[in-house]
TrEMBL record:
<dbReference type="InterPro" id="IPR013154">
    <property type="entry name" value="ADH-like_N"/>
</dbReference>
<dbReference type="InterPro" id="IPR036291">
    <property type="entry name" value="NAD(P)-bd_dom_sf"/>
</dbReference>
<dbReference type="InterPro" id="IPR020843">
    <property type="entry name" value="ER"/>
</dbReference>
<dbReference type="InterPro" id="IPR013149">
    <property type="entry name" value="ADH-like_C"/>
</dbReference>
<dbReference type="InterPro" id="IPR051397">
    <property type="entry name" value="Zn-ADH-like_protein"/>
</dbReference>
<dbReference type="Pfam" id="PF00107">
    <property type="entry name" value="ADH_zinc_N"/>
</dbReference>
<protein>
    <submittedName>
        <fullName>Zn-dependent oxidoreductase, NADPH:quinone reductase</fullName>
    </submittedName>
</protein>
<dbReference type="InterPro" id="IPR011032">
    <property type="entry name" value="GroES-like_sf"/>
</dbReference>
<dbReference type="Pfam" id="PF08240">
    <property type="entry name" value="ADH_N"/>
</dbReference>
<dbReference type="GO" id="GO:0008270">
    <property type="term" value="F:zinc ion binding"/>
</dbReference>
<feature type="domain" description="Enoyl reductase (ER)">
    <location>
        <begin position="21"/>
        <end position="333"/>
    </location>
</feature>
<dbReference type="InterPro" id="IPR002364">
    <property type="entry name" value="Quin_OxRdtase/zeta-crystal_CS"/>
</dbReference>
<dbReference type="GO" id="GO:0016491">
    <property type="term" value="F:oxidoreductase activity"/>
</dbReference>
Length: 337
């Protein structure tokens, strides 16, 4: 059962598909009321993610019925608890995924307790809103899928973005040597500040040659690739013996064809990562991942890079700049406290 309507609130809605700046409209809508098994939260912060862009375009695997409010990741304060909910109470500060069509880019959102977690007190609202998708994706990709070990070389593409920045910090926390690939000097400095040992500006350098030079010709043990297309193809030229390429997404817009004969000849693995499936097939692993990330946040080892903190009125523009590749770190809507 979905939430029902309550008092009015402001929210961004997509009524017609398209680019975020034109598809999203800030409107007054009824505030949702949690159904049984749901909680209502006041949105303290909502982090923009590439799936928000794809949902606006109608290109994501999840296609909410129109109109819907985008925003797949938030930090919020519980204000109302539906029937059959235990372990959560009004006043709790939480993070996780809202239940669409009541997404994060609004004053209030609805959440499912299964994807709702205590927000680490060491992180502010915008940082906590950014800890869920990118960091859980990185943790499962690097540890569960790739088995990253201390001393190995990790190559991270789009290293100054939300997903890539998380992978740099998690790779360093695991004891890996991290090579980050970015586009432009501004993003290069961000990757250095995040802790990357080597930074490659793809506009002026060939990451294949840099990786080979930095590893004595051996190549990267793990490649973390949220870009796809030619980035993936060229990564196969600098993957180590028994290396692992983690396919995270296709932000470059092209879904590449994989040459399996090349994987056979060079003896490397191609690993797909659909992080959301762990909620279905292994929910305890999601809980354990959050415990690990909270511990790293408490230590100060991971700290989401929030580059922009936006009022509600500026959200559509921020999501569009994310779509255009003009952002670094995380772009986050901050609600009124």
């Amino acid at each position: 059962m979905s939430a029902v309507a309550g008092p009015a609130m402001r929210a961004w809605q997509v009524a017609e598909l398209g680019e975020p700046r034109t598809a999203m409209r800030l409107v007054d809508v009824p505030r949702p009321t949690p159904a049984a098994g749901q909680v209502l939260v006041r949105v303290l912060a909502g982090a923009a993610n590439f799936p928000d862009v794809l949902m606006c375009r109608g290109e994501y695997q999840i296609r909410p019925e129109l109109p819907f409010t985008p925003g797949v990741e938030l930090c919020g304060e519980v204000v109302e608890v539906g029937d059959e909910v235990t372990g959560l109470a009004p006043g709790d500060r939480v993070l996780g995924a809202p239940v669409l069509p009541h997404g994060a880019f609004a004053e209030f959102a609805v959440m499912d307790p299964a994807t709702t977690f205590a927000a680490p007190p060491e992180l502010d609202d915008a940082q906590a809103a950014s800890l869920y998708i990118g960091y859980q994706t990185g943790w499962f990709g690097l540890h569960r899928r790739a088995g990253l070990r201390a001393g190995e070389t990790l190559l991270v593409h789009a290293a100054a973005g939300g997903v890539g920045s998380a992978a740099i910090q998690l790779g360093k926390a695991a004891g890996a040597r991290v090579i980050g690939v970015v586009g432009g000097p501004r993003k290069a400095q961000v990757a250095r500040d995040l802790g990357a040992d080597v930074v490659v500006d793809r506009h002026t350098e060939d990451f294949v040659e840099v990786v080979k030079a930095e590893t004595g010709g051996r190549g990267a043990d793990v490649v973390y690739d949220p870009v796809g297309g030619d980035t993936y193809r060229r990564s196969t030229k600098c993957i180590a013996f028994e290396g692992r390429i983690v396919v995270v997404g296709f932000a470059g817009g092209e879904i590449q064809q994989v040459a399996l004969n090349h994987a056979l000849v060079k003896n490397y693995s191609i690993l797909g990562l659909h992080w959301g499936l762990y909620n279905r097939y292994d929910p305890p692993a999601i809980q354990e991942c959050h415990r690990q990330l909270s511990a790293l946040a408490a230590e100060g080892t991971v700290r989401p890079l929030v580059s922009e903190r936006l009022p509600l009125e500026a959200v559509a523009d921020g999501v569009q700049r994310l779509a255009d590749g003009d952002t670094v770190g995380r772009v986050v809507y901050e609600g009124a406290r």
